[in-house]
Amino acid sequence: MLIEILSYFSILFTFTLLIYWPFINHFKQTPFIHRTRPYVIGMKFGITGLILTFSAVQLTNDFMMYIQYIPVLYSGLLGGSFAILISGLIIGIGLFFLPYLALVPMILNINFFVVVVTLFFVTRKYEMTNKNIFLFFWVCFIETFVALFLGLCFQTKSFEYLLLYGIFTIFSFYFIYIVIRQIKRANDTVKQTTHLKRIDFLTQLPNNNENEKHIQYLIKKKSPFNLLLVDIRNFKTLNLQYGFSTGDLVIKQLAQHLMEYAKKNEAYVGRLGGEEFLIVLKDVPPAVAIVEANNLITTIAQQPFEVSADLSIHISVTVGISSYPANGQTSSELLENLVIAKQQAKTKLSSYFHINNLK
Predict the structure, then answer these.
(1) pLDDT tens-digit profile of 171-230?
(2) Do residues 229 and 276 touch, judged by C-beta distance below 8 A?
(3) Signed CA dihedral, 312, 303, 200, 323: sign only
(4) Verdict on whether the full-model pTM lies above 0.85
(5) How far apart are CA 231 and CA 321, in angstroms?
(6) Are the C-beta atoms of 307 and 243 separated by less than 8 Å?
(7) What is the DSSP string of 40-96?
(8) Contact at 8 Å (CB) between 348 and 328?
């Protein structure tokens, strides 16, 4: 019997992890996957429950290991109320096809349907989460335990099996939950590490590596685009006057402003380093890029930067511009011309300069 119980637990554990793994591992969520997620999860956990049903350990003629609501609970945690209903219906219908269906199992099957329907309506109002799933588990466990106890009172008196059932159910639920949480934490750490490799820590903008990848991607597509290098004027003086922490606040606020600009204009924005930022404007001629650069300069000059509760300052920026394919066929050529354009912009009253204007 011990081997059968271990095999039964292995089935539950393995199938739960196989279903959970893609979601724990943060796979790419497409709109189609997002729409069909509750139904797919419900079907997967329903099939898991069916396998558990037909491989259940028969303890007595009227009593078998009855933990089908555990996959139902995990389906609700991952897919919501509709996943609960789908998985519960699949398992519940399968229960009536058991070859050894006696009176007590029949009553328990009906009880299982009641539990599933109740869970469905309750989770429609109160979403199942990592925090409250324990409450749902204990309610289901106690309700089923009482139903089994009453069934045993009318049939066999093998209450030691009821105790075994309780220990096995509690162990299975908590062991699987702990393993899932540990795997999720490990994956979150990996995801965060990967994120930090791509993102500038201070501004949360793409860093130089990502900027390079984005430019190379556009060059590979042979799509025309313009690069804008936004540089804060007299930033060293600002740091000396107000302190480096104030300089960091200005950089963070400017990054936020540029992100908002990028969203409105379907542009790309990243940090080059220090007080320099990169903006990529796609599918527009150089003349439009010059207009956008001038607008950015004007808007930023009018924008107050709150550096403390009682102090706000104004900054000005210069913008260098280079365009693909006219000003370079590679990212290094484009960026080299972009730096030259920025240096020219610092000497111009207009504060912007396109490399095409260099004589």
Answers:
(1) 889 988 888 888 778 777 777 777 667 888 889 899 988 999 999 999 999 889 999 999
(2) yes
(3) negative
(4) no
(5) 12
(6) no
(7) HHHHHHHHHHHHHHHT--B-SSS-B---THHHHHHHHHHH-HHHHHHHHHHHHHHHT
(8) no
69-79 vs 31-54: helix crossing angle, rounded to 10: 170
Domain 208-357 has CATH 3.30.70.270: yes
Count CB atoms within 10 A of the CB of residue 271: 26
Token pair listed for 349: 């009253």
Six token digits for residue 315: 């900054």
Q: Name the DSSP letter for residue 356.
A: G
C-beta separation of 112 from 91 below 8 A? yes
Looking at the chain, which runs of residues are DSSP E strands? 225-232, 268-273, 276-282, 305-308, 311-313, 317-324, 352-354
User: In Å, what is the CA distance from 160 to each residue of 60, 63, 69, 172?
Assistant: 11, 12, 22, 18
- Structural tokens at position 286: 């150089």
265: which 2 tokens?
A: 């204009």
Take residue 86 and report the two structure tokens written for it. Answer: 């789908």
Q: CA of 203: how far to CAs of 6, 199, 244, 251, 271, in Å?
A: 51, 8, 15, 7, 8
* CB-neighbour burial class of residue 322 (10 A; exposed 0-12, middle 13-18, buried 19+): buried
Structure-token pair, residue 34: 């997002």
Q: Which CATH number does 2-197 carry?
A: 1.10.1760
What are the residue ranges spanned by the domains of the chain?
2-197, 208-357
